[in-house]
Specification:
Blueprint: H1 6-21, E1 31-35, E2 40-44, E3 58-62, H2 78-87, E4 93-97, H3 100-106, H4 120-125, E5 129-131, H5 139-149, E6 154-157, E7 161-166, H6 169-189, H7 198-214
Parallel strand pairs: 5-6
Antiparallel strand pairs: 1-2, 1-4, 2-3, 4-7, 6-7
Length: about 220
């Protein structure tokens, strides 16, 4: 289509395959979207397997109203993809993933509110939000995720999975893999876990924010 180039379609396919290669999704779980310009976005089609995605499994949509332009049915979670891209001009990529350890925590009856066991969490992600379990693909879930994502870069959906955002594909993959690592450390360490001090957390976050501000 004229709205999207062949190169962009190929880049999106490659990104989906990369997400799967890191173990962030399995079979048809998870979904990915990408703002290709001010008007249009790409999103994985419903029931597609990201690890085996083809160009024929990509929905091309108008961001402003969600109109599908190429007759492909977008992921059932398209509601929060559209909403996040509309709300946050700094975000170009949205990833819903279901990696093993992070999803184990999402399915736990314990309320986790601190994931700062490695420097990468406060540096790249900051505070993590959690939303309650709501039906997948529902308007209620989309509203909760969109609201939480206004001030966070990663949201845990209870008994479901995670959503993270970034400026590009590398950023979202890095955020998702670092979060998965932190969750693995937390679950393996158990009662022996040692979190970073608040002063260390604050320092790392400020360094990250200053670095990003200087790039503007």
């Amino acid at each position: 289509m004229n709205q999207v180039s062949e190169k962009q379609l190929n880049e999106f396919v490659t990104a989906c395959h990369r997400v799967a290669s890191y173990g962030l999704v399995r079979s048809s779980s998870g979904n990915l979207s990408w703002r290709v310009n001010e008007e249009y976005m790409l999103i994985t089609a419903t029931k597609s397997w990201m690890g085996e995605l083809t160009r024929e499994q990509i929905a091309i949509c108008r961001i402003s109203d969600g109109t599908v332009l190429n007759e492909k049915k977008p992921s059932a979670e398209n509601g929060f993809h559209f909403g996040i891209l509309r709300e946050r001009s700094d975000v170009n990529v949205v990833l819903h993933f279901q990696s093993t350890y992070a999803t184990a925590i999402a399915c736990s009856d314990r309320d986790y509110n601190n994931f700062s066991v490695i420097p990468e969490i406060p540096y790249y992600l900051g505070r993590i939000a959690t939303v309650p379990y709501l039906n997948p693909g529902s308007n209620e879930l989309a509203k909760e995720v969109i609201s939480a994502m206004k001030e966070h870069d990663l949201v845990i959906m209870k008994n479901h999975g995670q959503v993270t955002v970034g400026n590009n594909f590398d950023e979202v993959i890095q955020k998702a893999t670092f979060f998965e690592l932190a969750c693995e450390v937390i679950l393996h360490a158990g009662n022996q876990i040692q979190f970073l001090s608040q002063s260390a957390i604050d320092y790392l976050r400020q360094i990250y924010l200053k670095s990003n501000y200087s790039k503007r």
